[in-house]
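Notebook p. 47: complex prediction with 2-phosphoglycolic acid.
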Amino acid sequence: MRKKMVVGNWKMYTNTATARALAAAVVKGLGDETRVTVGVCPPAPYLLSVAEVLRGSLVALGAQNCYFEKEGAFTGEVSPTMLTDVGCRYVILGHSERRHKLGESDAFINRKVHAALAAGLHVILCLGETLAERQANQTEAVLDTQLQGSFAGLDAQALPRIVLAYEPVWAIGTGQNATPEQAQAAHAFLRGRIAERFGQPAAQSLLIQYGGSVKPDNAATLMHQPDVDGGLIGGASLNADQFLAIVRAALPHG
Ligand code: PGA
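Predicted complex, C-alpha cells below:
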C-alpha cells in the first residue's frame, strides 16, 4: 500500500506572519497523524522561518523551485543545497506556472531534477496537459513527452525520491477539477509508462499526486482513486482548515 501524500503549494502568497501562523495551524491540526505524509511549500523568503515552526513536527518543508547549479554567479537563483541547508526535504519542479509563464522546458527541468536529487532532496515533479491539448486528444502524448524529457538520464534508484504530480493546466486555480475518472486514467497511464521504463516494482511504489482545484468537498473521491496517491494543493492550502480537511480526506478508509 502506498502511503498518500498531501502537500500545500503556497505559490506567491503569505508574508512572514501569515506563513508562520498557517504552518503552526497545520502542525497543530495534523498532530501525531502518521497515516498520511504532509508537507508545505512556502515562498523562498519564508522557508527558514517556517522551518522553525515545523521543527519537531510531522509536517515536512518543501520549496517551490530551485536552480541546477550548487553555487555561482546566478543572480536571483536558489540552489538545491541552499534548500537542504534551510531544512527542505522536498522541491516542486516543473510546475505548470513555471513551464507556461516562465518558459521552462523539459530539458531545463531535467537538469534541475538531477541537481535536486544529487543534493539529497525529494522531487515533486509536475506535469499536465493544457485544455487545447486535452481537446485535441493529446493528453497522453503530452504527458509522455514531459515524463521522458524531465526523467532523461534517471535510473530506477532515483525513483524512491521522486513523486509525480499530475496537474492538468486547465484545472489549476480554475475551480474546475479533473473528474476522478480523468485523474485515474492519467495516473494509470503515467504509472504504466514508469513500469515500462523502470519495472513494475518501481512503478507500484511511485507516488502520483493529483493537483488542480482540490477542495475539501471533492478531495475524498479524487484521493481514493486506485492510482491517485494524494494531492498537491494550491488555493485550498492557504486555509489551514481546508487543507487539513483535504489531509483527512486522504486518510485510509475504515
Ligand atoms: P490549485 O493549484 O489547487 O489552486 O488549483 C494546484 C497547484 O498549482 O499545484
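Notes: The CA atoms of residues 106 and 149 lie 5 Å apart. The chain has eleven helices and eight strands.
Next step: compare against the earlier run before touching the bench.
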